[in-house]
Amino acid sequence: MFPADRLTLAHWRRTVAEMYADVRRFSETDPRRAWNHFRACRDDLFRTHPQSPLTPARRADFGGLPYFPYNPAWRLGGTLYPPQNRETRTVILPADGEFRYSPVAEIRFRFEDEPLKLTLFWIEGYGGGLFLPFKDGTSGSKTYGGGRYLYDTIKGADLGAGETDIVLDFNFAYNPSCAYDSRWVCPLSPPENTLSVAVTAGERI
Prior knowledge:
Number of domains: 1
Helix content: 10-25%
Radius of gyration: 16 Å
Number of helices: 3
Number of strands: 7
Shape: globular
Distance between the termini: 28 Å
Oligomer: single chain
Strand content: 25-35%
């Protein structure tokens, strides 16, 4: 990666972090406004930014990312518990080398009275970061088959996590970069993070 590429990547991360700071602030009183802001900012990044996962040809006629309609029922709170399995996972990413992530908490939550859980990961390495990928009943049909992300705090994606609880607003679920072009290789959701329900919220395929 050339130095200029690293500088544009730093700018992408800074812009995303600023967007999520707005999302957390707006969500305190108006989650739908936060979601509309999120969509507008992401569309602008995908259309104009040098680090866009879209090829230049696809950016030329880009009309915006597709989402399910906003659904307040999918804005949930989760409770954090110690993870049952602390095994570190390793994925080889061609551009970055080893990507290592370890369970840091088990998230328990409910949707329509059904108990659900996800594993929250910590990205190993300098600085670290929270990472929450997931798959669900829409994966491979209405949404990307490899799953979607809710948290990737190294890239600035942070809806709000405390010491014992976490915001799970699936309206903000988004695709990894590899969903847009085969030149990208991404860490995908592990089997344990496959939800038994269809999450009809967030970004679509």
